[in-house]
Amino acid sequence: MRIGLSGTIAIVLILALAIVMTVLNQATPAGSAVHVPTYMIALAGKYLCYAMLALAVDLVWGFAGILSLGHAAFFALGGYAMGMYLMRQIGTRGVYGNANLPDFMVFLGWHQLPWYWYGFDWFGFAVLMAILVPAVLAGVFGWLAFRSRVTGVYLSIITQALTYALLLAFFRNDMGFGGNNGLTDFKDILGFPVQADSTRCALLVISALFLCGQFLLARFVVDSRFGKVLIAVRDTESRTRFLGYRPESYKLVVWVLSAIMAGIGGALYVPQIGIINPSEFAPGNSIEAVIWVAVGGRGTLVGAILGAILVNFGKTWFTGALPEVWLYALGAMFILVTLFLPKGVMGLFARRERKPADEEIPAAAREVTG
């Protein structure tokens, strides 16, 4: 596995910034010039979770040629799994003081906890569901789609329909997930107050570690023979099938892995943001994730992380500095990047140690065919 110079720099910067921000938040007084306020800790944590989603999208789009417009579904499902655990930790501290039912269920007149909420008292079970539910959904969806050889724009439309269907389903009050309001008012995670500065700092560092771990995993996958076959499938699927490979199997594996990565990002996102609702399933969120990858540089992995952080930072800055025209400013940024940086921001680093996936196609084809 070749991490490359850009990958090494990315890992060092992510971990260093998370640790430095944590130290400056915990070890300096609030009035100090170098103090990092808690809201910035939460904001940085959100960016890192979005970077996990972008990394998951880049893995399937940049290296397998699967343009997913529904990856927000896996992100949101991971978030709901963690949100259910956090809701069960509230207990009698809720508005209605019911130890067995979340507040929204009491408000809606529910008298018994639904069966699919059982087990979410335990953190380990919630983590397992944050991984298993996106994986199962991706596995079933991918098996049906890839087995039927659905590709291109048709597959993209189906993925968008999937997340939109989940959006409509989770909006319903009778689904048992809080309806339009979703899940919120969290108190504790593993016994630690969610709103405490120390907890938020710990979640930031954990998010940084998971992001780096996912990057290393993705790099290992694309550098392996499996990854070379993926690139061959992306560019010449019919020829790869003729050579004896089963493209649908390779697509399914990387699709499920990508869904798990997105689900983990969603699970870390919820305790830092403090809410999860059906709007996370919105197709627009999946489209934004594709834009992050395009801005950073498709097929580079590092570019996906960079794009997610840059675009979301720009979004935050524009909403504060240009509240009336921030959408136009953000749109102009996307247009400029598309026109002048067709390979994304990472395209600026022409002499980087590792070439992007597009330039590795001949080598990948030789290895697959040889």
Summarize this, please?
The protein is an all-alpha fold and 370 residues long. Helix content is 67%, strand content 2%.
Descriptors:
single chain, 370 residues, mainly alpha, 4 strands, 67% helix, globular
Describe it:
The longest helix has 27 residues, at 38-64. Residues 351-362 have low confidence and may be disordered. This protein has helices spanning 4-27, 38-64, 72-88, 103-107, 123-147, 152-171, 197-223, 225-235, 237-242, 247-273, 283-296, 302-321, 326-340, 361-369; strands at residues 183-184, 188-189, 192-193, 275-276. The chain is 67% helix and 2% strand. It has a two-stranded antiparallel sheet with strand order 1-4. With 370 residues, the chain is an all-alpha fold. It has 14 helices and 4 strands.
Largest sheet: 2 strands, antiparallel
Which class best fits the helix and strand makeup? mainly alpha
Radius of gyration based on Cα positions: 21 Å
Strand order of the largest sheet: 1-4
Straight-line N-to-C gap: 20 Å
Tell me what portion of residues adopts beta-strand conformation.
under 5%
Helix content class:
55-70%
The succession of helices and strands, N to C, reads HHHHHHEEEHHHHEHHHH
The averaged pLDDT comes out at 90
Can you lay out the helices and strands and say which pair or pack?
Layout: H1 4-27, H2 38-64, H3 72-88, H4 103-107, H5 123-147, H6 152-171, E1 183-184, E2 188-189, E3 192-193, H7 197-223, H8 225-235, H9 237-242, H10 247-273, E4 275-276, H11 283-296, H12 302-321, H13 326-340, H14 361-369
Antiparallel strand pairs: 1-4, 2-3
Helix pairs in contact: 1-7, 2-7, 2-10, 2-11, 2-12, 3-5, 3-10, 5-10, 7-8, 7-10, 8-14, 11-12, 12-13
